[in-house]
Amino acid sequence: MRASEVGYWDNNFKSLDKNMVTDNVWKRQQLLKKLLTHDFIGSSVLEIGVGFGTVAFIFQRLYLSTLKYVGTDVSHKVCEFLRNGHGIDMVHTDITKLPKIEPDGFDYIIALDVLEHINPKDRELGYDEMYDSLSDGGLILINNPLDESNHDGEFDYGLDDKGIANMCGDRFELSIKAPYSVKCKQRVCNYEWIEMRKI
Ligand SMILES: C[S@@+](CC[C@H](N)C(=O)[O-])C[C@H]1O[C@@H](n2cnc3c(N)ncnc32)[C@H](O)[C@@H]1O
User: Fold this and answer.
1) Structural domain containing residue 147
2) Is ligand 1 within 6 A of the CB of residue 94?
3) Mind listing the pLDDT tens digit for each residue in 157-166?
4) How many domains does the chain have?
5) Would you say 163 and 119 are in contact if contact means Cβ atoms under 8 Å apart?
6) What is the longest distance spanned by two Cα atoms in the chain?
7) 174: CA distance to ligand 1 center in Å?
């Protein structure tokens, strides 16, 4: 994990504990609909790059103790806020060192608007880590922004079709790759919802 990444994301989430009214609630509503097509009851979930914490908060309240949820983030600020402030199981780490705390691997890995931020030098190792952390037949649920990013280019590399094919290799089967748009305030934002299963 690079110090520059920790610094960038800590700064990005500096007002995490305040009401972030500019956050894209329209997208989040769509994401929750997509996530909740799955039956998470009794399952284990690893979320990479929890950030704002929407999934962590909702899952905590929705599934109670029927779900084993572990979140990760490179930002100390995010980890402290969710762990100390809200009792969410958080590990401060990046994609190259995911927690292996489920003996047979997690049933789901969730990565929403995260994989485009992974430094290309870390991608191969990161995808290996996702594979090793997932149970046999487990699912990876990904949201991938398609519009030009507002993030600093040093921390946002994009994830194109070639990158997605590299991620899949012959270890994950791509079951869904569906673009969608959300009308947010005056503009339309474009994303891609991806589901891939460990072969
Ligand atoms: C755009 S935010 C998305 C946050 C959250 N998933 C959401 O939808 O609100 C990107 C997240 O990826 C995390 N991140 C950045 N680089 C990462 C890396 N190398 N490994 C794992 N997570 C990373 C950041 O800390 C941040 O929380």
Assistant:
1) 3-10+24-180
2) yes
3) 999 999 999 9
4) 1
5) no
6) 47
7) 22
